[in-house]
Specification:
Distance between the termini: 63 Å
Number of domains: 1
Structural class: alpha/beta
Radius of gyration: 19 Å
Low-confidence stretches: 213-257
CATH architecture: 3-Layer(aba) Sandwich
Number of strands: 8
Shape: globular
CATH class: Alpha Beta
Helix content: 25-40%
Number of helices: 10
CATH topology: Rossmann fold
Largest sheet: 6 strands, mixed
Bound molecules: zinc ion
Strand order of the largest sheet: 1-2-8-7-3-4
Order of helices and strands: HHEEHHEHHEEHEHEHEH
């Protein structure tokens, strides 16, 4: 009886440490299944934030969303490795530059004890700097806010720490974030980096929320905006000259086909 209890407890512990269900679709005996891995690199999905090209590895929906949430909640290495493949594709589609992470919210860090973006960046064998959160007069999670509220809450919420600012002054940098939703946080990251004297040349994200019908999101109004991973692999360092500047991407032309 005792032995059975111990075995059951060990099995439960093992299933937590080494998940045996796909975090994306629940398929058995694999942490992230092949089908979900394919979805995680389903983009790149392109856009622009304040004239800075954005490349996300996939749309934030379905299994992609589930894997990202699992990585954020549990810090699973298998999930982080699967997401790292998408991050690598997003980074390869942007100009080569130093990477600067958007940090977890203070609340998220306290609750989880780790920074999911840092985890994925490490899994991608990339080095990165990190922005820091500036203590805010408007506490609360971005995901609970509307677009206008997000914009307002994000303003002035990020800064580049002095050591990073000294090291990166005058150099091109790429922002790395997990999920780009309204673009408010990415825009704030771009602002903070410019304020620190850096030149943001791209934003790489694990996923981007799909365009909402009639919404006010900052994504191109044209249908599509996707290019195939194959095309991206053939042109790994191609800059994105045909993305024009402009607030909220209103002046975007389609990047992909
Ligand atoms: Zn799966």
């Amino acid at each position: 009886m005792l032995r059975e209890t111990v075995v059951a407890a060990a099995r439960e512990a093992a299933s937590v440490l080494w998940p045996v269900e796909c975090a994306g679709c629940g398929a058995l005996d694999v942490a992230v299944c092949a089908a979900c891995r394919t979805l995680l690199v389903g983009g790149p999905v392109r856009g622009s934030v304040d004239g800075v090209p954005l490349v996300a590895a996939a749309e934030y929906e379905g299994a992609v969303r589930s894997v990202i949430l699992a990585c954020k909640e549990r810090g699973g290495r298998a999930e982080a490795r699967a997401l790292a493949a998408g991050l690598a594709i997003a980074l390869a589609a942007l100009p080569e530059a130093e990477r600067v992470r958007v940090p977890s919210s203070g609340e998220g860090m306290r609750r989880r004890g780790f920074d999911p973006v840092a985890l994925v960046v490490r899994a991608a064998r990339e080095r990165s700097w990190a922005l820091r959160r500036v203590p805010s007069a408007r506490p609360g999670a971005q995901k609970e806010r509307g677009v206008v509220e997000r914009e307002r809450a994000a303003a002035g919420s990020l800064a580049l720490p002095p050591r990073a600012a000294r090291a990166l002054a005058g150099t091109p940098v790429v922002v790395v974030d997990d999920v780009v939703t309204s673009g408010a946080t990415a825009r704030e990251a771009v602002r903070a980096l410019r304020a620190a004297g850096c030149a943001p040349v791209g934003i790489a994200a694990l996923a981007r929320t799909p365009r909402r019908l009639g919404g006010t999101l900052a994504w191109p109004a044209a249908a599509g905006g996707r290019v195939s991973a194959r095309k991206s692999a053939q042109q790994p360092l191609a800059p994105t000259p045909n993305i024009s500047g402009g607030q909220d991407g209103h002046h975007l032309r389609r990047q992909g086909r």
